[in-house]
Amino acid sequence: MSVVSAGVANAAAKKSNPRYAAIVIDANTGKTLFSANPDSRRFPASLTKMMTLYLTFEALSRGKITKETRVPFSAHAASQPPTKLGVRAGGSVNVETAIYALVTKSANDASTALAELIAGDEETFARMMTAKARSLGMTGTVFRNANGLPNPGQFTTARDMSTLGLALREHYPQYYGYFSTRSFTWGRARMPNHNHLLGRVKGMDGIKTGYTNASGFNLVSSVIDGNRRIVAVVMGGASGGARDNHMVELIQRYLPQASNGGKRGALVARAETTSPAGAIAKVLLPKHDAPTPDVKPDGDVEVAMDDEEQAAPAKVAEAAPAKPAKTPESVPAPALQAYAEPVPFQRADAEAEAAPAPAVQHVDPVKTASVTPSGWVVQIASAPNREGAEAILDKTSKQAGGILARASGFTVQFEKGGVTYHRARFGGFESKVAAWDACAALKKKKISCYAVQN
To answer: Scanning 56, 247, 371, 433, which has the fewest C-beta atoms within 10 Å of its C-beta?
Structure first.
């Protein structure tokens, strides 16, 4: 880090933002141009969908699926909370429509439906995601679901997200153009891309936004200026506007410092584990505005906004995209003041510590709960087997979806008297008070529960 950058970081450290992390990578050389907490554990939120799309592109390239393959929506997929397409259980869309839904609207239901199409169920798909992360060199990442909805055992780092951003372009250039889609029309709904910098920052061609209460506002960006190419990651923004302004500032500051082309080798190992199932088909990348699908939506749909849309991000500085700074010293740093060095992030349980694994079946078995930063969860009941505990979670979610909208269900295995049981719990609460309040609301619905700290 340069002296100027270090000074900015020190100034930013005066304010506390434990979720902040960032990194800028020269995509020609792999050199780190800037980093702040790049290997600290963070929640990925919808950046998770980058890996869902990576595995979708892999399946397309191997001939396992085509862009016209139907993607059925199970009851589980259809029940995912917004943002979502709103396809009813039993309905379907084609693969390309699901891809557009992920890169623009960040649809949670479409993510889960793709996972089930490719792997049979979302849990198996999450193991595939983690295995692929290991093969790409993403050693600080564990996936638990396909969409990034809150799960205390799902985490990543800014460095790992930059690696994934590089891998998507390098390994699947024939599909990468989907990330530059500005908007997508489906049925009567027009869905703009959540990345508000597309079309506003010269040379930006993606990649993905993400937001949950626990993660803050995240963004991975790819920018090209002539032969210069960078991938930048910002995690933990206090608002969409602060995140976007910070991303613009990093681009202005470090894109001029990136290498001007030349010879380059592969930056991200492909690490194939199975042979291709079919030849790679020629793919015509979509235009900025994706066309309306030929097939109309199946059944009734519900169009809903996610938290990031509802947050109405602050307007990005109008002058920011137009003219890159001539020198690092000439760039003001007001946006950086919103960020700071983090407090230590409480580690998850031992199994979620993410030991690398060569095969899917050995990756991060889901046996115990992971701990949120606050460590508070709501326990509903116990069952003699995992299926019973999961059934309790599903029933409770349906009965009290509003109360648990930001919580994530999981099971915990324990033994008593030589007999194995499985607890049904909801995690993701930011404090003891939040967990207690949720339990109190559940009890009003005659759902037994108690709040406990892991």
So the answer is: 433
pLDDT band for position 274 (50/70/90)? very low
- Smallest Cα–Cα separation from 141: which of 128, 156, 159? 156
Angle among Cα 298, 304, 305 to the nearest 5 degrees reads 140
Domain boundaries, the chain: 3-338, 367-453
Considering just the CA atoms, what is the radius of gyration of the chain in Å?
Answer: 22
- Indicate if the alpha-carbon torsion angle 32, 37, 40, 45 is positive or negative: negative
Cα(210)–Cα(187) distance, rounded to whole angstroms?
A: 25
Give the whole-angstrom CA distance, residue 316 versus residue 301.
32
| Fold annotation for 3-338 | Beta-lactamase (3.40.710)
> Diameter of the chain by CA atoms?
70
List pLDDT tens digits, range 210-242: 999 899 999 999 999 999 999 999 999 999 889
Angle between helices 122-135 and 48-61 (to 10 degrees): 90
Query: Is 323 annotated in some ligand binding site?
Result: no
**Catalytic center residues:** 46, 49, 106
269: amino acid identity, one letter? A
**DSSP H helical ranges for 94-138:** 95-100, 108-119, 122-135
Instruction: Give me the residue label for tokens 């993607």.
Output: 71
CATH of domain 367-453: 3.30.70.1070
pTM of the model: 0.64
Tokens found for residue 447: 């759902």
